[in-house]
Amino acid sequence: MTVGGILLPSSAQSKPQGGEVVAVGEGKIFGDKKIELGVQVGKNVVYSKYAGTEIDFNGVTHVLLKEDDIVGVLETDDIKDLQPLNDRVLIKVAEAEGKTAGGVLLTDSAKEKPVIGTVSAAGPGTVGEDGTRRPLDIAVGDCVMYSKYAGSEFKSADGRQYIVVKASDVLAILS
């Protein structure tokens, strides 16, 4: 049910995209190297919108996730404080243009979706086949262009738009 009292079918209800980690697997094995997972029990994580499988365990609903479905670790209630995992990048989205080149004002629905923003946080990089971590070429403060339909979008406590994308979805570093 919505705040206004409207009953929505389960297909139209928005599900939470985060929660507390209650258990983790053993990690990944690369030859004789063991790589620990990037999350630990007790941490709050944010995950992709359509990720995971819901299961009922001891009368409580849980979501079973792969590490790749987890966007990052969130220590506060504000998405701007997210610490991305692995090859994920947190980007503060640039404001959409409010008027056309000819001076016509645009409504919010008519504005073109921005694909440019400033990197607010970046993950530590990917783990290669040999078990070593490869750092990202993207740094905090970089102005980047990313794929239009990539990533997971979020709104911060102050109303700013953020998006978390994989580093491979960053098309260019503009500065």
List keywords for this structure.
175 residues; Chaperonin_GroES; six-stranded antiparallel β-sheet; mainly beta; ATP binding; four-stranded antiparallel β-sheet
Write structural notes for this entry:
With 175 residues, the protein is mainly beta. Helix content is 0%, strand content 37%. It has no helices and 16 strands. The chain has a six-stranded antiparallel beta sheet with strand order 14-15-9-10-13-16, with no helix packed on it. It has a four-stranded antiparallel beta sheet with strand order 1-4-7-8, with no helix packed on it. A hairpin with a 5-residue loop joins β11 and β12 (133-134). The chain starts with 17 loop residues before the first strand and ends with a strand. The mean pLDDT is 83.
How would you summarize the topology of this molecule?
Blueprint: E1 18-20, E2 28-30, E3 33-35, E4 44-47, E5 53-57, E6 60-64, E7 70-73, E8 83-84, E9 88-93, E10 116-122, E11 126-127, E12 133-134, E13 143-146, E14 152-155, E15 161-166, E16 170-173
Antiparallel strand pairs: 1-4, 2-3, 4-7, 5-6, 7-8, 9-10, 9-15, 10-13, 11-12, 13-16, 14-15
Summed up:
With 175 residues, this protein is mainly β. Helix content is 0%, strand content 37%.
Q: What count of helical segments does DSSP give?
A: 0
Spatial order of the strands forming the largest sheet = 14-15-9-10-13-16
Strand tally, please?
A: 16
Helix/strand order, N-terminal first: EEEEEEEEEEEEEEEE
Termini separation comes to 45 Å
Shape: globular
Assembly of the depicted chains: single chain
**Mean pLDDT level:** 83
**Percent helix range:** under 10%
Structural class: mainly beta
GO molecular function, one term: ATP binding
Keywords: Chaperone
Organism: Ceratopteris richardii (Triangle waterfern)
Family: Belongs to the GroES chaperonin family.
